[in-house]
């Protein structure tokens, strides 16, 4: 298959490289000539485990190319994917579709012969209709089938998620697209990932409904964690206890500082707006958005409370800045609101993150950066673990404590055991695990 990917950002690049790896002939297009030149030299603009290798191998095999020239790439393609950004529009939270609309018009002008045009970007329900209208208006002779094929990959596990998805959702209104889309995904189909064919609007909604449900699940366990703290229960045991019920499922029940990233915050907000526009309010998601927003800053107050009510003049060592491990992405990371709350209260912040410090510098002012976890601890009155990078999972507690100004540890990801940290002389605070119960779940899990 000849596939063209419009947009070489996160989704476009991962999908393009994976399609090439399936054996398809793939061209990735982007307007940013610096990005395209860098990709041509084998430099990957994002941090994603395994992506550099995948790109290099497929470029070497002649199956993957990069270009700024949209027109010839579209004219040659059987299937054109739109994988451009859909950021939150400033002011109202709706998804900003200007890049999608511009791509549709550019594609329309370049089409030659029957072509399947697929939106892979996360777009509000009804966008496929709009893409179809723009193409027809720009080029009345165009022969296209417009398809919705949302992407469910997670940052940090993107290649694995792409190659071993739980399902592939394909929304179409024109049956001619079915065969080509089946061909595009044949390698996965052979791997037995179910291809779910739906109407186009349904496919668009599946993506938002899925992300909103997951965001709600996380927010639910976060609120249960708060209740656990007040009542002496253990949230990890509650999560295990409810998660074993197959109707609930055990995943996405890790309590923490709130969800962040490039998808959940933006998509939940956009879905709320869609609901309001259609006079079909999504009150559970509205509450999820509000609770999660408040939680991030509340985590800052929790650190202040752990230090006896004041952090003025004190140094807080922060471990982890990115919204989750294995990414350099800082978008909507809880660390931003937590650090701001601490800075507002007069604290000095010394932070370390294995990949996120570059982006952090552009988002948060006034942070001192450390060279590793031990450096972040030196002179600190408290260590706050915000992102559960593997390298923070087995820190030498005695070594950390030796250079700290006071032995406080706030573990916002429940990585450590109370017993262990107290034995090393720390005052230990975690999420939803009051009392000694926090060790029990590990023992059950180890069985
Ligand atoms: C998410 C979806 O998982 C993916 O399907 C979609 O395509 C894009 O959005 P991503 O944003 O990369 O992927 O990260 P994910 O691993 O889902 O985590 C999102 C946020 O939720 C992170 O801040 C993470 O720390 C948080 N989270 C996740 C929890 O706090 N607890 C959990 O149990 C799971």
TrEMBL record:
Q: Which domain of life is it from?
A: Bacteria
Pathway terms, separated by semicolons: Nucleotide-sugar biosynthesis; UDP-alpha-D-glucuronate biosynthesis; UDP-alpha-D-glucuronate from UDP-alpha-D-glucose: step 1/1
Which Pfam families does this one have?
A: UDPG_MGDP_dh, UDPG_MGDP_dh_C, UDPG_MGDP_dh_N
Domain called UDP-glucose/GDP-mannose dehydrogenase C-terminal: residue spans: 317-418
Give the family from UniProt: Belongs to the UDP-glucose/GDP-mannose dehydrogenase family.
Stored PANTHER family:
UDP-GLUCOSE 6-DEHYDROGENASE TUAD
The name this protein carries in UniProt is: UDP-glucose 6-dehydrogenase
- What is the reaction catalyzed? UDP-alpha-D-glucose + 2 NAD(+) + H2O = UDP-alpha-D-glucuronate + 2 NADH + 3 H(+)
The EC code for this enzyme is: 1.1.1.22
Key words of the record: NAD, Oxidoreductase
**UniProt xrefs under PROSITE patterns:** PROKAR_LIPOPROTEIN
Q: Does the keyword Oxidoreductase apply?
A: yes
Q: Output the NCBIfam families linked to this UniProt entry.
A: NDP-sugDHase
How far does the signal peptide extend, from start to end residue?
A: none
Keyword field contains Oxidoreductase = yes
């Amino acid at each position: 298959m000849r596939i063209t990917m419009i947009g070489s950002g996160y989704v476009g690049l991962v999908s393009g490289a994976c399609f090439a790896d399936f054996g398809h002939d793939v061209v990735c297009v982007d307007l940013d000539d610096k990005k395209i030149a860098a990709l041509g030299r084998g430099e990957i603009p994002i941090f994603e485990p395994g992506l550099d290798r995948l790109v290099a191998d497929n470029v070497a095999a002649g199956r993957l190319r990069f270009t700024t020239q949209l027109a010839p790439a579209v004219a040659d393609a059987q299937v054109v994917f739109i994988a451009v950004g859909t950021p939150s529009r400033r002011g109202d939270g709706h998804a900003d579709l200007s890049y999608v609309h511009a791509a549709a018009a550019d594609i329309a002008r370049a089409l030659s012969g029957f072509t399947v045009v697929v939106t892979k970007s996360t777009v509000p329900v009804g966008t496929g209709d709009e893409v179809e209208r723009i193409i027809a208006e720009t080029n009345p002779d165009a022969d296209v089938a417009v398809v919705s094929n949302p992407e469910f990959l997670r940052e940090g596990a993107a290649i694995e998620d792409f190659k071993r998805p739980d399902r592939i959702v394909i929304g179409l209104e024109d049956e001619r697209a079915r065969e080509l889309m089946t061909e595009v995904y044949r390698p996965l189909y052979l791997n037995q990932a179910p291809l779910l064919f739906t109407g186009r609007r349904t496919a668009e909604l599946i993506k938002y409904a899925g992300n909103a449900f997951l965001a709600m699940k996380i927010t639910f366990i976060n609120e249960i964690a708060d209740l656990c703290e007040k009542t002496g229960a253990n949230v990890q045991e509650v999560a295990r206890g409810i998660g074993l019920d197959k109707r609930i499922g055990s995943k996405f029940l890790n309590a923490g500082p709130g969800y962040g990233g490039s998808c959940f915050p933006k998509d939940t907000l956009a879905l709320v707006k869609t609901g309001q526009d259609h006079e079909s309010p999504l009150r559970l998601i509205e509450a999820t958005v509000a609770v999660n927003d408040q939680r991030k800053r509340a985590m800052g107050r929790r650190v202040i409370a752990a230090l006896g009510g004041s952090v003025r003049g004190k140094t807080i060592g922060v471990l982890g800045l990115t919204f989750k491990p294995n990414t350099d992405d800082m978008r909507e990371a809880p660390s931003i609101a937590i650090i701001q709350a601490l800075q507002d209260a007069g604290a000095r912040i010394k932070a370390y993150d294995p990949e996120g410090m570059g982006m952090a510098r552009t988002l948060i002012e006034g942070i001192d950066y450390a060279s590793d976890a031990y450096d972040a601890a030196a002179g600190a009155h408290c260590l706050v673990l915000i992102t559960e990078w593997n390298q923070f999972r087995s820190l030498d507690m005695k070594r950390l404590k030796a250079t700290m100004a006071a032995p406080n540890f706030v573990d916002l990801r429940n990585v450590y055991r109370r017993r262990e940290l107290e034995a090393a002389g720390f005052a230990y605070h975690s999420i939803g695990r009051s009392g000694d119960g926090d060790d029990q779940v590990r023992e059950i899990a180890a069985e």
